[in-house]
Design brief:
The protein is 33% helix and 14% strand. The protein has helices at 13-16, 19-30, 46-51, 84-93, 100-106, 161-173, 199-207, 244-250, 257-269, 287-301, 317-323, 331-339, 354-371, 384-394, 420-423, and strands at 9-12, 39-41, 72-76, 112-115, 133-136, 139-140, 154-158, 180-183, 213-218, 235-241, 273-281, 307-311, 377-379, 435-436.
């Protein structure tokens, strides 16, 4: 487990009512740097904790804060009673103005969310290539301190993994087209393990499923504890990897470049399928040399089945400048982003214009191909214009590429046979509790 000094630890009374859940929390608390006496609370006390206790006060972009402390910890249970919407409505009626995954997690909901990517209801369907699927959630928040991220300040961890897996099984039965399930795209699951004792049981549960796979997307160094689980090849670990400058100065408390690749080597040695995403690629000074170094190192030490590329994006240049240390950025690329705002005004793939992102992808692809001429390489959450420009270089199109965490990319990363936007059909029918959206 990461060595943490949370300012406070909250435990929902539903956790304390169950011996095994309470023991999980006690193991985490015992592993903290300094002893912390947990505060037990009930749902009815949440409005006061939020408004008067500052529960979410540190949920801000970390690069905008003078000091980034370890997050407060909050332990809760999924209720799976179908009433999470009612509870969120109640919370807002108390003047908390809270929505999304965080609101649901605080109230025992949000276990599963429907990602409608590239379907009719997706507002970004013409500007972002991603696959519609079910996303699964067990934590909300992160112990890492990436400057560009807003998921610090509070880490909400659920503890009733056995109930979770049973309900997830119902969701799987209704969606035979989805083979892989990405866990916690708004968190980093290994941070509290193995003391929390939830990720291991989930790994072993997936190991017993037929043609269903768990995907853990992470920046962690913490995988040694994963060696002895019966995963049966049904857990895939995907590392967001970055060069040394970015990993050390912009993504504090994550694994460094070398530590992430070593963590991947440990997982690979234990039989897990591993993958990498160069994501988000931030053009720091010397980024070309660092991309070359990172590509060489990961192929020297590991054997991934797919690599994805994604530039830093989803915000305008002014927002980027608030979040990142400008003295670390390549001044030429920063100037281009400032001077060419109009070119990217109609895409979410900003702040860097098309030609800049293309140059970054070309360079990374060249460095990857120096070491492996056959591994599938894809673009992650890029727009259709970029996919059109790179489909011949990559050998894939926007609808058949194997990606790092998509719902059909099983181990070995084969080319997709079915159209991913058409094969995905939502069929929960409102009968699966814990669903958001």
């Amino acid at each position: 487990m990461y060595k943490l000094s949370p300012p406070v630890v909250y435990v929902n009374d539903t956790v304390m009512a169950n011996d095994s859940y309470r023991e999980r929390v006690e193991r985490v608390v015992a592993a903290l740097k300094e002893p912390v006496e947990p505060i037990v609370y009930a749902d009815e006390q949440l409005p006061a904790l939020i408004k008067d206790g500052g529960l979410l006060a540190a949920r801000r972009t970390m690069g905008t804060m003078e000091e980034v402390r370890d997050p407060a910890l909050l332990f809760n249970t999924f209720r799976f009673d179908g009433k999470e919407g009612e509870r969120v409505k109640w919370l807002n009626e108390q003047g908390c103005s809270l929505s999304g995954q965080t609101a649901h997690a605080l109230l025992g909901g949000g276990a599963f969310s429907w990602a409608c990517y590239n379907q009719a209801e997706d507002p970004n369907r013409n500007d972002k290539v991603c696959r519609p699927c079910w996303r699964i959630h067990f934590q909300n928040g992160c112990v890492h301190k990436c400057l560009y991220c807003g998921f610090g300040g509070l880490l909400i961890s659920m503890v009733n993994v056995e109930d979770y897996c049973r309900t997830l099984g119902q969701l799987m039965e209704r969606h035979p087209w989805q083979y892989t399930y990405l866990l916690d795209d708004d968190g980093d699951p290994p941070g509290l393990e193995p003391e929390l004792g939830c990720l291991g049981p989930m790994i072993e549960w997936f190991g017993k499923q037929e043609n269903r796979y768990l995907i853990i997307h992470t920046k962690t160094w913490n995988t040694e504890w994963m060696r002895d689980f019966d995963h049966n090849g049904h857990t895939i670990l995907v590392w967001s990897v970055s060069g040394p400058t970015q990993s050390r100065l912009i993504e504090p408390l994550t694994g460094t470049t070398e530590q992430r690749i070593e963590a991947a080597r440990v997982a690979q040695d234990a039989g897990y399928q591993i993958r990498y995403k160069f994501k988000p690629i931030i053009p720091v000074k010397g980024w070309r040399e660092e991309a070359a170094y990172t590509a060489k190192l990961l192929f020297e030490r590991t054997n991934p089945d797919v690599i994805s590329l994604c530039c830093f994006m989803w915000m305008d240049v002014d927002d980027m400048k608030r979040r990142l240390p400008l003295d670390q950025l390549d001044p030429e690329f920063l100037k281009v982003a400032e001077d060419q705002r109009d070119e990217v005004k109609d895409t979410i793939a900003k702040p860097f214009p098309h030609r800049v992102r293309a140059e970054i992808y070309d360079h990374h692809l060249t460095e990857i191909r120096k070491w492996n001429s056959d591994i599938p390489v894809s673009l992650s959450t890029e727009n259709f214009r970029m996919w059109s420009a790179f489909k011949d270089k990559l050998g894939y199109t926007a609808t058949d590429y194997p990606c790092g965490c998509g719902p059909q990319t099983v181990p070995g990363a084969p080319r997709l046979v079915d159209h991913p936007f058409k094969a995905a059909v939502r069929n929960d029918g409102g009968v699966i509790p814990g669903v958001v959206g």
